[in-house]
Structure formats: C-alpha cells, structure tokens
Amino acid sequence: MNATAPIPQDGTTNLDMDGLSRILFGHAAFQYLNAACELGLPELLGKKEGLTREEIRDALELQERAVDILLLGCTSLGITIKRDGRYRLAEVIESLMDQGDWQRFKDTVAFEQYIVYEGQLDFTDSLRENRNVGLRRVRGSGRDLYHRLSENPHLEQVFYRYMCSWSELANRHLAEKLDLVGCEHLLDCGGGDAVNAIALARANPDLRITVFEIPASASIAEKKIAQAGLGEQISVVTGDMFRDPLPTGCDVVMFAHQLVIWTPEENTALLRRAYEALPEGGRLVIFNSMSDDEGDGPIVAALDSVYFASLPAEGGMIYSWGQHEECLRAAGFRSTERIPFPGWTPHGVIVATK
Ligand SMILES: C[S@@+](CC[C@H](N)C(=O)[O-])C[C@H]1O[C@@H](n2cnc3c(N)ncnc32)[C@H](O)[C@@H]1O
Fold first, then answer.
1. Which ligand 1 atom is at minimum distance from the Cα of 241?
2. By C-alpha distance, which of 348, 324, 350 is closest to 337?
3. Ligand 1: does its nearest atom lie under 6 Å from the Cβ of 36?
4. What pLDDT digit, counting tens, does each position of 67-110 carry?
C-alpha cells in the first residue's frame, strides 16, 4: 500500500482502491500507531540517524516476528522510514516532538485506544437509533460518559489527560485570538480540569474566571488550578449546567468542547441559560472543533464525530459553524463572529454578543 496516497478529503476526489483499502484496514493502521506509542518506538528513534532492525528489536525487547510485524506496519504506513537498512522517524512526528506536542498527540492516541475504540463498535446502531448506544460498554449508571468516569479511574485518567492535551493543542490560539479586553469575569461552563481557564487566566491577568463542573470532576480542576498557582484568579463552582442556576456576575460565558456533546436542542437550551445569566453586551464564546458548512469535512471533524455519535451522550457531533450560529440565534444572541484557528485540528471559536 502506498503510504503517500491521499485519502480523499472532499466530495470531489475519486476514491481509488488504495484509498478504499486504507479505510478497510483503518483500525489496523491505528493499532500500529498505538503500539508504536506504547512500545516507545518514536522516542527510541527520536532524532537519531537511524537504527537497524536488530537495534530496535533489542531496545524494545521484542521477539523476531514481533519486530518484523511492527516495522512492516510502521514503515508501510510512513510512521517510520527505512533507508539503507536503518529506520528513522517520519518528519511529521519529529516536528511534533520539536514543537513539544508529541506527548499531547500520544495522549490523544491513548484516548482513542482506551475510550473511543470500544464504544465506536456500536456506531451503526447509534446511527440507527440516533443515540449513543456505545455508552453501554462503559461501566456505571451515570446518564452520560462524564457521569461514569469517576467509577472508572483508568478511563477518568486517560480522559482528562487527553482533554487537557487536546485543549492545549488549540488553546494557544484561543488565548491569542480571543480579545477579552474590558471583560471582568468569565464563566467556563463544564470547564473540565480547568486547562482553558488556566490558559486564559495567564493571558489575561486581570480576568476572574469561574469553572463550573459536576461535583465528580471538580476536584480535578481544583488540583490543577492550585498546581498552576492561580487559586486567587480562578474559582470552581459545582453544579449541573442543565439543571442548576448558572453562577451570576459573569460578563463572558464560555463553552469549550461542550457544544459538540449535546443535541442542537440541548445546545440551544444551554445557550439560553447563558443568555439569561449575561448582562446586556455580555459575550458568549464557543470553542471547539467545527465542520464546514458544506458538510464535507474537514476529515478530522468527520472522524471525530464517530465518537460523539456513539459514546458520550445521546446527541452530539462536530457541528458546522452554521449550526452553532443557528443555536445562538435561537437563544437570542445577535452579532456572531467566526475565528478559525490554524493547525491540524479543526478548532475555532465563535464569539456572540447579547
Ligand atoms: C468534553 S469535556 C470538556 C472539558 C473542558 N471544557 C475542555 O475543553 O478541556 C466536557 C466537560 O463537561 C463536564 N460536564 C458534563 N456535563 C455537565 C453538566 N451537566 N454540568 C456541568 N458540567 C458538565 C464534564 O464533566 C467534562 O469535564
């Protein structure tokens, strides 16, 4: 299989047999990536000139057949490059390492492996029934994935590591492009481990931030805020954003990686609650991945939607910019602004005003 053959990314590209085979064996391609990460192959190769098969075998403590399989897969997929009998890393992985994003990428791989993989086995049924059938594979009785995580400590750890890393891959742009001059108090609804609150607090030292989280996850945020030394600037309030009153006194409400989880009706209900909590002129910020209004990409938005369809909650997907804007209008907001972010994740921000 040709590792460089493009996977069609829009409705105009003709899928060939090579591309179709890559989709057919997509799960196996991912397993090579995951195994390389778990075995430490990228770190071993690092910036080296190249290691032989035998050096890799010995360093990773693999048997002959196992190292042959690993290198066959990694090399045919382009994760490793073989030249003159020596293996080195793909340039794209080297640059993730150079940028300090490699651990963040690996946290995303672990999330796909330990949380997404099993749940998406129910993707077809989830489409048929228009609900997250895959949640049945996560132990517990909570009404959604988030209300089950504390019953599954390993999953909880994998989830919040990933959530932190996935946010950090994009929140450097959030901190840079979101103009909060003149804003006093931001409410981060469903703020997770406070990763985005911490980034915004550092970028805006005069801004107060309240993270609103369910009781089961609030302690994770409290710990991270204390570690960052930002306890004076960021506070945590526990509650259910669908049922409890939102904390008052904020002039900005942010939903980060939040409005990809719920149905459009639930998103509109959340936005209405935020609208009611905001003063006239107050701002609403949606920060997450977005799909194109044409409904044909980008590919990361499309592939990530399998998770949102199958697992976390009854509705959800990587909605288009336009779908979010429709919910904002239905909730009463006027003037919306789109800010697409650069980078390989399809992140962006929509800012709306009351
Ligand atoms: C996908 S995570 C996003 C976390 C964080 N905003 C980020 O971008 O990294 C969704 C978060 O929403 C929280 N959450 C889910 N349902 C909630 C509810 N009803 N009320 C408050 N928070 C909720 C979850 O506990 C989880 O931490």
1. 20
2. 350
3. no
4. 999 999 999 999 999 999 999 999 999 999 999 999 999 999 99
Give, using CA atoms, the residue closest to atom 22 of ligand 1. Answer: 190
Where helices occur in the chain by DSSP H, the ranges are 17-24, 26-39, 41-45, 53-60, 64-77, 91-98, 102-111, 117-119, 123-129, 153-177, 195-203, 215-227, 264-277, 299-310, 321-330
Q: 5 pLDDT exceeds 70?
A: no
**The two domains 17-98 and 170-353 share their CATH topology (first three levels equal):** no
Q: How far apart are CA 325 and CA 333, in angstroms?
A: 9
CATH of domain 17-98: 1.10.10.10
* Backbone Cα Rg of the chain: 22
d(CA 141, CA 230): 34
Q: Whose CA is nearest to atom 23 of ligand 1?
A: 190
Residues 337, 179: Cα–Cα separation, whole Å:
12
Give me the residue spans of the domains in the chain.
17-98, 170-353
Is the Cβ atom of 107 under 6 angstroms away from ligand 1?
Answer: no
Q: What angle do CA 189, 214, 204 make, to 5 degrees?
A: 35
Instruction: Please state which CATH number belongs to domain 170-353.
Output: 3.40.50.150
State both tokens at 342.
Answer: 């650069």
Write the ipTM: 0.99
Angle CA 217–108–211, to nearest 5: 30
List the structure tokens of 314. 């009854």
The finding on whether 32 has its CB within 6 A of some atom of ligand 1 is no
User: Per DSSP, what are the bridge partners of residue 209?
Assistant: 186, 234
* Ligand 1 neighbour 347 (Cβ under 6 A): no
114 secondary structure, DSSP code: I
